[in-house]
Amino acid sequence: MTDFHQNGVITNFHNLVKRPTESLETALRGFSRKHKMGLILPSLFSELEGPALKNIITQLASVDWLEEVVIGLDNASREQFLYAREFFSQLPQHHRILWNDGPRLKALDAELEKEGLAPGAMGKGRNVWFCTGYTLASDKTQCVALHDCDILTWDKGMLARLFYPVANPSFDYVFSKGFYARVANNKLNGRVGRLLVGPLLRSLRMIYGNSDYLEYLSSFRYPLSGEFAMRTQVLKGIKIPGDWGLEIGVLSEIYRNYATRQTCQVEIADNYDHKHQNLTGEDGSGGLRRMCNDIVQSLLRKLATQGAQVTGDSFRVLKATYYRNALDVIEMYRHDAVMNGLSFDLHNEEAAVEMFTQVILEAGQAFVERPNDKPFIPSWSRVQSAFPDLLPRLYDAVEQDNKGEV
User: Fold this and answer.
1) Of 14, 23, 196, 352, which sees the most CB atoms within 10 A?
2) What angle do CA 41, 45, 51 make, to 5 degrees?
């Protein structure tokens, strides 16, 4: 049984009584008469070959209250794109695939590049950005959700719960964020959320002082979750980060543009599992290390815009403060795991914290050396100002890819 506390600055939607998915879907069918709903799925082609996405698509085929599905496809050749068209053809909803490696979308990207408005390197942020553009151009929905394509434990009840707060016409929420426990294979997962972000937010408050922004972020049970829903109008004004700071960046943009009373988080699952990354890549810089560096820099940039004195000297203090807080948190998680009969590898947990500690220093140094970095992709409002006809042309390019010869 979940808790029922409302002890942050955003609303918590708990799973108090395990309301059946069928009951939620009945309500959503009614909501859809006023607020039509769409889903964005950013995907690598490789995920079409795994078990997670096959299950997601099979279940989505029975979601009759969903109006549109927009799939962003990365790392796909022409033959793989044609395979993807067949793969997703079982969806009864209006659905379109954005072939991000195709000549039509690359041509639009080249136009944006000339004006300094291109979304940058390939990656999830770029993928999501183009999908949000198509969603705006399609203009079929009033609410849109996003989640990853590698969720092994996905079921349609997760989507129903995620949508409910923003789709309910009697509610005033514009953004909902999913949260859940990360437990699989008899152990705790979610190292970046547990061992980096949580202790880091506490440490930032100790070093740079409390702020409404840090209190807002600290209110989220799982700020790194990739599952969120929003009113479609929100997509026009937010700047989506192009790096691994996507989730923190989106939360920061929602904080900047909307009142906290319009933001909520929703318990969407008892448990959740997806693919896991190694601490580092083969060269020692990829994996979770790169992700964490981007997340830390995203937080530092936001604090700097709010007037915090983010200096080289403060990073060394932050590093030491984080390390002590993180070790304390490890002990809390160890006791929690023991009480629940879970395995707990103390060595690996402390090794992760030691790596995260070094990443904080590296991210701080990178921030000082490159203070003018612009990791955010321009908002669609700005792009439309520079290219008034770009969204219709994006729509036409996607239509041609999905219906014609490629």
Assistant:
1) 196
2) 75
